[in-house]
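Need tokens for this chain, all 242 residues.
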Amino acid sequence: YNPAFYFAPDKYYGTKNKLKEFVEECHRNGIAVLLDIALNHSFGMNPQVRMYFDASAGQWGQPTSNNPWFNPIEKHPFNVGYDYNHESTYTKDFMKRILGYWVEEFHVDGYRLDLSKGFTQTYSGTNVGQWGQYDQGRVDILKEYADHLWSVDPTSFMILEHFADNSEETVLANYGMMLWGNIHEEYKEASLGYGSDFSWGLKDNRGWNDHNLISYAVSHDEERLMVENLNFGNATTGYNLK
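Here are the structure tokens for all 242 residues:
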């Protein structure tokens, strides 16, 4: 979650050519390869941060007001590190290079954009509800990125971890992007044996035109359904879910 060098596979995972071989082997077996990437933020080792940085500002220092890529102060409440300004032409050009590079060079099939709701220049401070409201500027940014990706490879997947108001997600879904749909609580309720309603996991109930909803029971943030079952599962005559 600390991205800095956006065009280099980490040597921990093997060489560049071995990664290419892995992707091609997946394709030969009918498996798509998607990269989960964090383009909302970066940290102080990123040269884009370091070249325009005021170490005396705030508790940890901050990007200067003339930084071509970063906001001096983050725009939304879930930010970590330093916040990219996705309305800057410099940031847009950089992000498009990233999105095109891994598709062209490694033949990956698309991306899952972490914290895509953070691609905003609308200041919401600590107000999570305001951050999730419809944001036309954010929609325009994501459409521009998607258009660039599809100009490189029209078959590429653009998946968003977004969690904004459904009015915004509808526009993005109808444009061709796919979105995560968090119904973890509903799945958990059913798994515990108390019944539930999965209707928000269906695109028709959100007013979307296409099947671009990826609803899920667990993720890296919402997990451990079996632990919940063992501790809080329902019981009835002759059967105890625990």
